[in-house]
Amino acid sequence: MRIQHLATIALTLLLTACGFHLRGMGSFDFALQELQFKSADSRAPLAKALESRLEAQGVELNATAPFTLYLQREQHTQRVVSYTAGTRSAEHMLTSSVDYAIRAGDLPDLMTGTAEVQRVLSFNQNHVSASNEEATLLRNEMRNELVMQLMMRLQAIKPEQLEALRTTAQARADADAEAKQQELDRLQQELNLEPLAN
User: Fold this and answer.
1) Is 24 left (phi over 0), alpha (psi -120 to 50) or beta?
2) Cα(57)–Cα(33) distance, rounded to whole angstroms?
3) Which of 50, 79, 90, 95 is most open to solvent, judged by the fewest CB atoms within 10 Å of its CB?
4) Which regions are flagged for Basic and acidic residues bias (predicted)?
5) Interval 62-91: pLDDT, tens
6) Three-state secondary structure along the chain?
7) Number of domains composing the chain
8) Domain for residue 163, yes or no?
9) Tens-place pLDDT, residues 107-135
10) d(C-alpha 31, C-alpha 55), whole Å
11) Which residues contact 15 (CB under 8 A, 6 or more apart)?
12) CATH code for the domain in which residue 79 is found
């Protein structure tokens, strides 16, 4: 077992020395230089991890930025996908997902999306505690993958793209507000009409 550990450490050092990076651990080039960041649960591990990664990549998170990234709560599901002999062990499909939106002020969402990761976990009824620990580690790995997905999607967004969406959303909101006001004015006129004399 010691030889395996030493071999693993040696391989890690070798890969690091030649500049190897784990998938998803590289840098990102963001066109969006600033964002407001809001979350349904700002203390949740996913929200904290995403906030840290954005700041590490040079994205300024402040309350005056024109666009807001809103993160919903992380959702977890688990279902059995197969059984082994005797039904003492089973494979579970773990799913972690999160909905997000890009907003501008009080306008309707400019962009929405869902990041999702799935993994298969072998669950052994004879070793429940070990299986639970493995599930926790796997969920943490999946959360990191969610962060990477969100970073890649945000990286692809251009400020001019959001500006165009905001202009369209604002025009639609103004038209709706004008139509409502015209309807109110019409109803008010009807109410103020005097009855015709006999």
Assistant:
1) left
2) 10
3) 79
4) 173-188
5) 999 999 999 999 999 998 888 776 666 688
6) CHHHHHHHHHHHHHHHHCCCCCCCCCCCCCCCCEEEEEECCCCCHHHHHHHHHHHHCCCEECCCCCCEEEECCCEEEEEEEEECHHHCEEEEEEEEEEEEEEECCCCCCCEEEEEEEEEEEEEEHHHHHHHHHHHHHHHHHHHHHHHHHHHHHHHCCCHHHHHHHHHHHHHHHHHHHHHHHHHHHHHHHHHHCCCCCC
7) 1
8) yes
9) 999 999 999 999 998 877 666 666 778 88
10) 14
11) none
12) 3.30.160.150
Does the pTM of the predicted model rise above 0.90? no
Look up the domain containing 61 and give its range.
19-184
Q: Is residue 196 in a domain?
A: no
Across the range 93-115, mean pLDDT stands at 96
